[in-house]
Every structure is written in C-alpha cells, then in structure tokens.
Automatic annotation (TrEMBL):
Residue ranges of domain 3-oxo-5-alpha-steroid 4-dehydrogenase C-terminal in the record: 155-308
Subcellular location: Endoplasmic reticulum membrane
Name of the protein described by the UniProt record: very-long-chain enoyl-CoA reductase
Organism: Echinops telfairi
Keywords (A to Z) from UniProt: Endoplasmic reticulum, Fatty acid biosynthesis, Fatty acid metabolism, Lipid biosynthesis, Lipid metabolism, Membrane, NADP, Oxidoreductase, Transmembrane, Transmembrane helix
Gene behind this protein: TECR
Length: 308
C-alpha cells in the first residue's frame, strides 16, 4: 500500500513546521492533527486549522487524505486558531449569568435601589410573572445545552466567552434593573396586554424547544452529518415549511412577547439586537443549505416567512 508524505507549513511565513512520513492513505485530517500535536504540543488539535491553500477554507476533521486533491507528497498550511474552549462551557456560562443576575434585581439585594427597598417585593403582578418567564427561559437554555444540543464543533475561540457574556449578562442587568425598579410602571393596557404577551411567550418557547428536539433527532449522536430538516408530526415544527431556522423565529417571538409584557425599552433593544444577530446566522445557514442540497425546498426564507 502506497503511503503519503505530509509537509505542514506555517500559513503566514511558509516556514516548515512538521514533516510526516509514511502517513496512511485513509488517514483523516483529525489523525494528521494528532500527529502534528506530537511535535508541537502547544497546538492541540482543536487549536489547529489545516488548509490546502494558505487563504483557503479549513479542511474538515473527517476529510480523508487520499480523497484530497494532493499528490503522494501533500503540503498543508497551518493556522493557529488561538486558545479554545468548549461550546458547552460557553453556553452554560453565558446562560447561567442572566439567570442569577436577574434574580439579584428581583429580590432587590442591598446597594441596588437604596436601603429602604432592600429585599422588598413589587406590588405589580407583571413583575413577578416577568421573573418567572425570564428564569424559565434561561433554565430551559441550560437544560437544552446539557441534554438536547449536539454540537458540530467541539470548541470555539476562548475570546468568545468574554464577548458573549458581556452581551447576555449586560442586557440581563439592564432590563432587570428597570423591570424590578420600585418606580416601575405596568403596561398601558393592563392585564389584557400581559395575557396576550404571556400567550405569545409560552407558544414561542414551546415552538423553540420543539425545533431543537427535531434538529437533535436529525443528527445521530457522535455524527456530523447534515440533513435537510423537515416538519414532523409536532405542529410547532410545521414552520419548517416556510423558514430554514424556525428556532430563531420562535426565539425572536419569545422576546417580542416579553417586550409586550414588560413594556420596557431595554427589553425591546435586546430583542432588536437579537433579531439582527439571528437574521445574520439564519441567512448564513440558509445559504449553506442551498449550496449543499440541490433539492432544498425553494419556498423557505431564512427567518421570517416570505420576507427575510
């Protein structure tokens, strides 16, 4: 059996970093990364990006050497992705923070609203309902991270945890400060507005969970295979008929419901920023689906049916 020689160069300086002799033809990029780590322990596999061209796309871990457009002496270009951290750790950290921070304001711990309000309780029902909804949302996210989500990538750059936590924790503190403030004013249309908002929030939370379960069942444990998601018998998944990322549609809907419920400007801004970011993600996933699957349903939009 013919073996390969693999030369790994620095993607920026073209300096030779490693030469691997007698590499099996069916070796995967993941296995080559492990061999590279033996000579350069500071660059563990999750930190490595190997490419056929210095400015090209990263090769996938499951790519097989003999199926790549290279000769028996293959040249790969290395790029350091920087310190990495697991997706699970990032998600648990960024979601646990808002849950804890919001409750500090809800229970009015000292030094937030002034001494005379320490550990007092709001007389407005909507304030207590908002706390229940906010807490439920983030407890749901934490449980989904542990038990539901299957990540196609094991890690992300360490710097992301600081960026993500600043966003989630900062907005949680900002909205919690106003919603739980002793001078907070309930919604203009009272109980009717709150009931409508609660219905929107609950429906969208159920829809979001349903989509996450459908996506989980689409990918077997340990697999990175991608398939076209289709509606199941669960009516909440029927939104797949119209959009590529209904989990984002339902997520935005939940925060619109929370905005209507609290009638609070920081919540509205959080919803808007979230919608913009999720639209970017949805458009990216929609393009990937169209590129990867020639039979992808043409009626679908990225996030908002028929519009966006």
């Amino acid at each position: 059996m013919k073996h390969y020689e693999v030369e790994i160069l620095d993607g920026k300086t073209r300096e030779k970093l490693c030469f691997l002799d007698k590499v099996e033809p069916h070796a995967t990029i993941a296995e080559i990364k492990n061999l590279f780590t033996k000579s350069h322990p500071q660059w563990y596999p999750a930190r490595q990006s190997l490419r056929l061209d210095p400015k090209g796309k990263s090769l996938k871990d499951e790519d097989v050497l003999q199926k790549l457009p290279v000769g028996t002496t293959a040249t790969l270009y290395f790029r350091d992705l920087g310190a990495q951290i697991s997706w699970v750790t990032v998600f648990l950290t960024e979601y646990a923070g808002p849950l804890f921070i919001y409750l500090l304001f809800y229970f009015r711990v000292p030094f937030i609203y002034g001494h005379k309000y320490d550990f007092t309780s709001s007389r407005h029902t909507v304030v207590h309902l908002a706390c229940i909804c906010h807490s439920f949302h983030y407890v749901k996210r934490l449980l989904e991270t542990i038990f539901v989500h299957r990540f196609s990538h094991g890690t992300m750059p360490l710097r992301n945890i600081f960026k993500n936590c600043t966003y989630y924790w900062g907005f949680a503190a900002w909205m919690a400060y106003y919603i739980n403030h002793p001078l907070y004013t309930p919604p203009t249309h009272g109980a009717q507005q709150v009931k409508l908002a609660l219905a929107i929030f609950v429906i969208c939370q159920l829809g979001n969970f349903s989509i996450h379960m459908a996506l989980r069942n689409l990918r077997p444990a340990g697999s990175k295979a991608r398939k076209i998601p289709f509606p199941t018998k669960n009516p909440f998944t029927w939104l797949f008929l119209l959009v590529s990322c209904p989990n984002y549609t339902y997520e935005v809907g939940s925060w619109i419901g929370f905005t209507i419920m609290t009638q609070c400007l920081p919540v509205a801004l959080f919803s808007l920023v979230g919608f913009i970011q999720m639209t970017i993600w949805a458009k990216g996933k929609h393009r990937s689906y169209l590129k990867e699957f020639h039979n992808y349903p043409p009626l679908r939009s990225p996030i908002v049916p028929f519009l966006l």
